[in-house]
Design goal:
This protein is mainly α and 68 residues long. It has helices at residues 3-14, 17-31, 41-60. It has two domains: 1-33; 36-68.
């Protein structure tokens, strides 16, 4: 990840949850404008797996803030 992308991600994480959601919706809408080769099924599966592992690790270390 580039330094610029890392800075954008850090800034994103400081946004209130509602604004994060709004931004994600816009980014997902725009991502549909990229050529189909940008994110292959294999790449999407890898990203989903990585996200799941991060969420699972967050629950394991107690950083999950949702009541449940």
């Amino acid at each position: 990840m580039s330094e610029t992308a890392a800075k954008l991600l850090a800034m994103f994480e400081t946004l209130p949850e509602e604004e994060q959601h709004e931004l994600l919706v816009v980014l997902m809408q725009r991502s549909g404008q990229f050529p189909a080769t940008v994110l292959t099924d294999v790449a999407l599966t890898g990203l989903a797996d990585e996200l799941f592992q991060q969420l699972d690790a967050g629950e394991t270390d107690g950083s999950d803030t949702e009541a449940g």
